[in-house]
Amino acid sequence: TLYESSLTFAMRKQLQAEQGAPELNTTILELEEKKNHLEETAEELKKKKDALEKQIKEKKLAEDKKRA
């Protein structure tokens, strides 16, 4: 009957979902780790950028003082 077919289909889909869950959890953990690493890298690059901008500003001020 249609009811039995849909019940079988639903149970099969449930099993497929349960079997795929560990893989999804592993993928989620890997992606979270990658995200954290990228955030750390972004923070390091931002600090380097800020330091370089500060150096450039200081050099420009020093050159302006020499000219004045």
From TrEMBL:
Family: Belongs to the inner dynein arm light chain family.
Presence of keyword Coiled coil: yes
Keywords: Coiled coil, Dynein, Motor protein
InterPro entries documented for this protein: Axonemal_dynein_light_chain
Gene Ontology CC: one annotated term: dynein complex
Any coiled-coil regions, as ranges: 21-65
Highest rank taxon of the organism: Eukaryota
A GO MF label: dynein heavy chain binding
The protein's name: Uncharacterized protein
Keyword Coiled coil: yes
